[in-house]
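ESCALATION

Customer reports they have been waiting on this structure for their group meeting. Please prioritize. Original submission:
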Amino acid sequence: MALGDSYSSGVGAGSYISSSGDCKRSTKAYPYLWAAANSPSSFAFTACSGAERVMFSPGSSARVSTATGLVSISVGGNDAGFADVMTTCVLQSDSSCISRINTAKAYVDSTLPGKLDSVYSAIRAKAPSAHVVVLGYPRFYKLGQSCLGLSETKRKAINDAADYLDAAVARRAAAVDHGQAHPRAGDRGPHRDLRGVVRAGDRHPQVAALLDFRDRADGRDYSGEHRMRS
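Update from on-call: job pushed to the front of the queue and completed.
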């Protein structure tokens, strides 16, 4: 079962499944590629571009059940105002960009944790034996080089905001995991979960998550990963 926003649906990757409409589910998205490579007995690809936490309420995740063996989910960025942050930072001044990012961070601190808790708890309640992979968000920009339309100040602030959001997602995943935690896995991590928040670093999570799923299917494991007790 693949739940999530545009980072899970594959927006930008092309090759969209016609029946997915505005959700823009791509055959190049990591859940689809994983399913093609591993041939699970069943596969539900329900990620949707623009998805917010409300779309993962118990009533909207009816296909998750006690028979579900694997769930992936990316959620939180749209709730925190990702699209508006990017619009502000591209079109307005450095100070306006940073102000809008600070507003998003305040939301991440005050409101998002409760929303994430409700999502993760609902999934765990409906699929208590499932392997649940919670995906983080990448840094968008390389620093120390020119970028048309975006100053170094804006790019660093956006990257820092991605890290800030990822840290919040990791904390809530760990909280549902009864506080189990392991240290950062060097430069490759942290890879955490309800069985795994995958931190993609500077890479798009499509790539990092696909590699993570592949290695899990092969029976290997990343050191430093946060695991939920079965």
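Sent to customer with the following note: The CA atoms of residues 51 and 200 lie 20 Å apart.
Escalation resolved.
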